[in-house]
Amino acid sequence: MNKSTKSIKTITTHEAKTHLSRLLVEVGQGGEVVIARGREPVARLVPVRRRGKAVGRPKVGVLTSEPVKVAADAFAPLEGADLAAWGLE
């Protein structure tokens, strides 16, 4: 279905609730549906535009960034003034 020949279907909110699964199939095939409350259009059901391959969660153990570098003395015991600053002396 190309854009120049596709028709836009207008349905009521009741029809949309009753036939949602069928409408999703139509929209998934490139259709478009306008949902109206009475004669007033209130929403449009359109296909989602895909932007390339969806990125899911990485597999366990797969690195997704550079490893964090920690200073050699990061876990050294605190001394004197540092202990006092933390109220631990």
What does the model show?
The protein has 89 residues and is of the alpha+beta class. The chain has a domain at 8-45: YefM-like fold (3-Layer(aba) Sandwich), CATH 3.40.1620. Helix content is 24%, strand content 19%. It has helices spanning 13-18, 20-28, 80-85; strands at 8-12, 32-37, 40-45. A three-stranded mixed beta sheet has the order 1-2-3. A hairpin with a 2-residue loop joins strand 2 and strand 3 (40-45). The longest helix has 9 residues, at 20-28. The chain is elongated. The protein starts with 7 loop residues before the first strand and ends with a helix.
What name does CATH use for the topology of the domain at 8-45?
A: YefM-like fold
Helix content: 10-25%
Mean pLDDT: 86
Q: Which CATH architecture of the domain at 8-45 is right? A: 3-Layer(aba) Sandwich
- Give the low-pLDDT segments: none
Compute the CA-based radius of gyration. 29 Å
Shape field:
elongated
Number of discrete helical segments? 3
Largest sheet descriptor: 3 strands, mixed
Structural class: alpha+beta
Q: How do the SSEs run, as a string of H and E? A: EHHEEH
Terminus-to-terminus distance = 76 Å
Largest sheet, spatial ordering of strands: 1-2-3
CATH superfamily of the domain at 8-45: YefM-like domain
Strand proportion: 15-25%
Q: Given this structure, which CATH class of the domain at 8-45 is correct? A: Alpha Beta
Q: Using DSSP, what is the number of strands? A: 3
